[in-house]
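thread: overnight batch results

M.L. [08:02]
morning all. the overnight job finished for the chain we discussed friday. pasting input first so we're all looking at the same thing
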Amino acid sequence: MKDIETTNDIELLVNTFYERIQQDPLLAPKFALRISKEQWPNHLEKMYRFWGTLLLYTQNYSGSPFDKHIGLGIGSEHFTQWLHLFNAAVDSLFEGPTANTAKERAYNIGLTFEYKLQQQD
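M.L. [08:03]
and the structure it wrote out:
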């Protein structure tokens, strides 16, 4: 397997990950609270830019992703499953330093969001 190197790699990762999210019995209902079926293409485009900026330094993303997660009733079990699915998607497609960075950044994002959401309660 190769490492994450191009925007096409980012798109493959994001598509694979979110296909798994949409099939997951724990996470799919939470995502459906904010993203309708018709809105998924726009969400995926935004995630391509987000992960491209984090991993390939494309600088194509701006925004505040945390705010979208407020009020969804998500807790530790959701973050654990999100990270599990993300890592599984990375590991099924890629290996190398950037793939490892993707998993590290996802872990840190999950921790940060979980902490900040706990502060909202």
